[in-house]
Write a structure and sequence with these properties.
Length: 549
């Protein structure tokens, strides 16, 4: 880490709340259950809002809670303007937003524009109307090549991206067969989703998280993908004909105009945050130009290994490219689609054991301080503040992820990071459901969840929960952590160090041996209590710098 570099200044409009916010992702089904059925719901989220306020986050993002047959746990939407009975009612949502705003918490809702459910009224009408009907034009229906699909595209969840219907035609599904893709070249689709945006903005949502924001448009004619894999178990995330079409940027300009209209009319900024699964950082930055999405998740940070050189390159690329576009970087360590960071850093994997959890915990604590010290916003996933590892040994007959079933069990799926949260150690379902409930949860909680329960974490001064609370409190108190200033410091191999705003520094030792702390000053916070003049292996510190340092 020899050279010193600086993050370029932000350009464009006055920074909004989202530029430096910490948002907590709520997987509603697994957060908190209010009615005792073992399934999380909106009233359960509402009851736990004080916990989120005390944690110190600025808002929450709700995974889909819409009416759905739940073949992909809500990402197969049958009605974009309602609430699934498992999760409550529209009144439940309104109460949640009202109470969140009273606590000065923003609310972001998840929108799924690439595909819907096979039970969506449009898709049911398309099936009933038959080949050549206008109803089928809202989707991608096509004739096959004999008994073969129309082209060779692969589903992200494994297998072909095409499903045949009884009249002989096929429809495109980038994900599960129960999730038909919309045809975004059809004007009805664009108009319907503008109504969806307005519906949730009118109900008080502060922003939208946009699922598969690089999808939507497909290449004209749906040509074969020349490099498509032939493995039936392999999805195809880089098909150039299915992803990142130029026309998709027109969609985000249209949505941004709606968001700006509400911002100007109500005085409350409405934000669009995209899930864009592109590996090219330059292309990713194009999605957050000043007239498109406000932010996109920077997944390269999540994908990076625990290696100082790799992290340096990823952070530098994010700050120079994403922030340079006029936006700010949205850092991510965990989400509902990936094994939990503690298990990743421990060398574990679903179906292959948990790995060295002590090592994983040390690295996850250090990674949290690294992420929360960087310029931009951070998106936390429920349970990461409790130091939850991935649940790697769920019985196969209980797994619900379509990825597991479509690959015949070859790909374990994402259930292991979606197990319901533990709130209290001395309770049959760890406080997830109220007393007197059935005593089961939709996915089983392992016995060792007791050690990660919120009440146990609060009792331990050195817990992961206290580390997150202290870090988030400092983010609010220290002006340097609200600035866009960033400067790398020279360090020895295996170590990262940088300053923010001239009065704050962060140092991270990614190596397996103790090193000298490259920053001189009083410690504000440390991931390892033994940190001081020496940084223990796999540790991070925040340091207050003297004036002029």
């Amino acid at each position: 880490m020899a050279a010193e570099t600086s993050c370029p200044p932000l350009r464009g409009s006055t920074p909004g709340w989202w530029r430096n916010a910490v948002i907590y992702q709520v997987y509603v089904r697994s957060f908190a259950d209010s009615d005792g059925d073992g399934i999380g719901d909106l009233d359960g989220v509402r009851a736990r809002l004080p916990y989120l306020r005390s944690l110190g986050v600025d808002g929450l993002w709700l995974n889909p809670f819409y009416p759905s047959p739940l073949r992909d746990h809500g990402y197969d939407v049958s009605d974009y303007r309602g609430v699934h009975p498992d999760y409550g009612t529209l009144d439940s949502f309104d109460r949640l937003v009202r109470d969140a705003h009273r606590l000065d918490l923003k609310v972001i809702v998840d929108v799924v524009p690439n595909h819907c459910s096979i039970e969506h009224r449009w898709f049911l009408a398309a099936l009933a109307a038959g080949p050549g009907s206008p109803e089928r034009d809202r989707f991608h229906f096509a004739d096959g090549q004999g008994d073969e699909p129309p082209n060779n595209w692969r589903s992200i969840f494994g297998g072909s991206a095409w499903q045949r219907v009884p009249d002989g035609q096929w429809y495109l599904h980038t994900f599960a067969a129960e999730q038909p893709d919309f045809n975004w070249r059809h004007p009805d689709v664009e108009a319907a989703f503008e109504e969806v945006l307005r519906f949730w903005f009118d109900r008080g949502a502060d922003g939208l998280r946009v699922d598969v924001a690089h999808g939507l448009h497909k290449a004209e004619g749906l040509p074969d993908h020349e490099l498509a894999g032939h493995d039936e178990l392999t999805g195809d995330p880089i098909n150039p004909h299915a992803w990142n079409q130029p026309e998709v940027h027109d969609v985000w300009r249209s949505w941004r105009a709606v968001a700006e209209e509400y911002t100007q009319r109500t005085g409350r900024e409405r934000v669009l945050v995209g899930e864009v699964g592109l590996l090219d950082t330059e292309q990713l930055a194009e999605y957050q130009r000043p007239d498109e999405l406000h932010q996109t998740f920077f997944f390269e940070f999540l994908r990076a290994g625990w290696d100082a050189a790799e992290l340096y390159d990823v952070i530098d690329r994010g700050l120079e490219t994403i922030a340079g576009s006029g936006s700010s970087v949205a850092w991510v360590l965990n989400n509902h689609d990936m094994p939990r960071s503690l298990t990743r850093y421990a060398g574990g994997a679903p179906g292959a054991g948990p790995g060295d959890l002590d090592l994983g915990l040390a690295r996850a604590r250090a990674a949290a301080l690294l992420m929360l010290a960087l310029p931009g916003s951070s998106y936390l996933y429920q349970g990461e503040e409790l130091g939850l590892p991935e649940v790697t040994d769920l019985p196969e007959h209980l797994l619900t992820d379509p990825m597991f079933h479509r690959t015949g069990g070859v790909r374990r799926g994402r259930d292991g990071c979606r197990v319901p949260l533990p709130w209290t150690a001395e309770h049959d379902v760890f406080g997830f459901s109220p007393d007197g409930s059935a005593g089961t949860t939709w996915l089983p909680q392992p016995d060792w969840f007791a050690e990660h329960a919120v009440d146990r974490m609060l009792d331990r001064g050195d817990s992961m929960l206290h580390l997150y609370r202290e870090a988030l409190a400092l983010r609010h108190r220290l002006p340097a952590l609200g600035s866009e200033d960033f400067r790398w410091l020279p360090t020895e191999p295996g170590v990262l160090a940088f300053t923010r705003g001239g009065g704050f520094a962060c140092a991270v030792n990614c190596s397996p041996k103790p090193v000298c702390n490259p920053v001189d000053g009083p410690l504000l916070l440390a991931s390892n209590l033994e940190a001081g003049e020496k940084l223990p292996p796999n540790s991070a510190v925040w340091t207050l710098l003297p004036d002029g340092a």
